[in-house]
User: Fold this.
Amino acid sequence: MILGGVLSPLENVLTEVLIWFHETVGFTWGWSIVALTVAVRVLLVPVAIRQIHSMQSLQIHAPEMKAIQQRYKSDRQRQSEELMKFYKENKINPYASCLPIVFQIPIFIALFFVLRDFEDEIFPDFGGQLEWLGLVDITEPTKDGWGPVLIAVYVASQLTSTYFMSTAMQSKAQRYMIMFLPIVFLPFILGFPAGLMVYWLTTNLWTTGQGLVTRRLMPKPQAPPKRSSRTPPKDAPAASNGEPADQAARETTSAATPGAPRRVKRKRGGRRR
Assistant:
């Protein structure tokens, strides 16, 4: 299989890490998968921090982005250009929220190939216990035995973890879609090895805990100051000689406008001719 060949180096790394946790640390194979998951998520902490900052920035600038979408709703190309320009000016990466899941997909697939041949290629050389919590065999399909209980816990953990991801979505339809994705995936994961479910369940619990901790500890970025009709533009001249900034801006505007009539104040007490 082409995909399996491309991911062979990653499969070898995962295999060695699992063997190390089992042989050196003394974990069972099920708990070795849990430890592997925690190690992966620790390595992804910098990416997760970028994801959180990006989500917060998207929430803060949501009204401005919505205004751009409304302004150019009849011109999709111009709308996209203006949004990309807005992202660049405000240092927003709209794709940062997807980075953790993008990095985990290859690991998930590689672990699938490792567990698929685990009982024939790895287990005979090292032995040990294949059951996790005395409920599921990590090499058996998730639908067997107590696997459905694991699936129920997985769905609950997936809903809670995706909740923290969906808070950055501006549309309710997008939020509902990402919340119901775990249920859509259920028919596909029933035939997966239970060890994969252990991996995904652990990463969901990590995401939930990480979301709770970061919401309390990480300060939200400051919202940009609201502009009003009296706020001078950025390139307006600074106030000089005690004149207010808005008066200086008005004088500059009137001076730059060609053909504008100039008012001359009449002195009091002067003689009339």
